[in-house]
Amino acid sequence: MSFKAVDEIYNFDFQDAQIFNVKFGDGISFELEALIVEPENSQNENFTKSYAGTTTVRLVDGKITGGCKDGYKRYDANNKLLEEVDDSPMDEDALKLILKSGSGAYLYAMDANPDSEEGNYSYTLNLEFPSKEAYDNIGGVSYQVSVKFTKAIFEWDKYMNRVQM
Fold first, then answer.
1. Can you give 15-40 as a three-state secondary structure string?
2. How many Å apart are CA 26 and CA 61, to the nearest integer?
3. Are strands 72-75 and 151-156 parallel, antiparallel or unpaired?
4. Distances 47 to 41, 120, 160 between C-alpha atoms, Å
5. Are the C-beta atoms of residues 38 and 44 closer than 8 Å to each other?
6. What SS3 class is residue 13?
């Protein structure tokens, strides 16, 4: 891989990122498409927001610590509440299955948890599975998966293009 950023999660933008090929072993690894590299990233030679090519992410010593299926509220056109569903906590095995079957899901955010510190990171992966129905604008099912790890390594071969604002 030509570019390698270590522990620079805050120098990436995940808003368009899709997750593929999740693997568990000595941590958690996966591939991302459409990951945005921020200008402040040590590996950004374009000095502007740019899409990285297929990016391999390795969370060294990574393990799932918790998570949930996101709840929601649905309203009618008159802003009358039609349905309310609370968050549903999930166990580690169920969350592992969600990640493994998550090929094509959007990893729209990777947020630091309050107890995150250098060398012992704690982050929440925010995933959304797109709806299987064509032209569905409601959105899909989303999950929050909390992970702990000691190092985050992002590697990619090339830049695709600059992000259009």
1. CCCEEEEEEECCEEEEEEECCEECCC
2. 6
3. unpaired
4. 9, 29, 14
5. yes
6. strand
